[in-house]
Amino acid sequence: MDIFISILSLLGFIALTASTGLFVAIEFALTGLERSTVDNHVRDRGDRSAHAVQRDYQNLSFVLSGAQLGITVTTLATGFLAEPVLSTYFTPLLELVGLSESASTAVALVLALIVATFLSMVFGELVPKNVAITMPLETARVVVHPVHAFNLVFKGFIHAMNRSANFIVRKLGIEPADELATARSNQELGSLVRSSAEQGGLDINTAKVIDRSLQFGEATANEFMTPRSTIAYLNADDTVDALIAKSLETGHSRFPVVRGDLDETVGVVHVKDAFSVPREARSTTLLGALARKVPVVPDTLDGDAVLSTVRSAGSQVVLVADEYGGTAGLVTIEDVVEEILGEVYDEHDDAAAEQDFQKFGSSWEVSGLVRVDELHERVGYTAPDGPYETLGGLVMATLGRIPTVQDVLLLPQSDNPGMSEFETGIGGRWIARVTVMEDRRVDKVILTPITDEEAKGYQK
């Protein structure tokens, strides 16, 4: 009879440990699922288990409370059964090795507690946890029905516990939720994309495009516009012949039309407008009469809003105004595309001459108009925060004056240097040599990495 009770108790221990595993599995499986995964599974399978998973996922707070209750009850019951049952197996073995009866009983209880805890942790918690994390949907389909039956039996008690917990949580200023938050911020999505690229789940080029697209929504018009100093424009009293000549000279098709300067922009003309004017009238027809109005956006407008404005503008061009109402630059559809995809060249562009980054040896020739965040991504140099947005601005701020050709300076270090997720630079300190100036604007700079020891020779 004692043997029968011992065997029955041992089977009860195994059953209770398995029950603990069910509750642990449902807990990790449901918290590891995304709403989209659950909804898609219902559409694809549509069976009883799929709908049960969706039901419990939408009632997560109640189900998790039931799982916690189940884990607590089964763990306590496991300990209650396991220690005396297992100690009965250990006591004779300990007496055989020479321990007294009283000592064997005490040591057996300790060993029983250790073994019971080990078995309960491994088979009741760790194994089902790891399975649920690895295969959350498959695990949820298996365990959802027995767990739901337990929750129905203890429904009233679970609701009472939940209401008590929710009352305390609300007193802490937090509103309880029945579902996991499945929305992701741009930063979280970007982190997922980079992680997928590093683990081989996404092609590196695809990951770059997605990452840049996510960053584009947070960029402002001021960051990706064509700056005022590089805009080719025409005057309102220029003729159509001047439009054709300007297009041939620059390779551009659209030009702002101004009265005096860009702060007094009348509109925009397209080179195709020239063909609407008879040949004999092109030398006398003024562009002010052909210019179409162009939208104006503030330089703080975010990328998504700028894209919407550019797409809706008939001219596919918008002017960017600074905080003082002056024209800071303009944004074209090409600027938007290049912000997401990188540089795009057509048959009119000199790709080699217009590249913002050209590497030779360990040095880089970089356009002065490149934004400092792009330096971090492409070259590996991380600029400190300051009153500048471009490499040219960084050079001017560091020198404290308008640069001249062949100026050489040690670039400042960032307080929080770091490398790009997709590009690796050489690191260390960097020097900049100004090679081309366009009036008072820095046009080209050569960046060269140096060691900390070499940097001492450039420090004042």
UniProtKB/TrEMBL annotation:
Keyword RNA-binding: no
Domain of life: Bacteria
Localisation per UniProt entry: Cell membrane
CC per GO annotation: plasma membrane
Transmembrane intervals: 6-26, 60-82, 102-123
Residue ranges of every copy of the CBS domain listed in the record: 225-284, 290-347
GO MF term list: flavin adenine dinucleotide binding
Membrane association type: Multi-pass membrane protein
Classification via SMART domains: CorC_HlyC
Pfam families (UniProt xref): CBS (PF00571), CNNM (PF01595), CorC_HlyC (PF03471)
Keywords, alphabetical: CBS domain, Cell membrane, Membrane, Repeat, Transmembrane, Transmembrane helix
Similarity comment text for this entry: Belongs to the UPF0053 family.
Name of this protein: Transporter of the HlyC/CorC family protein
Protein source organism: Corynebacterium humireducens NBRC 106098 = DSM 45392
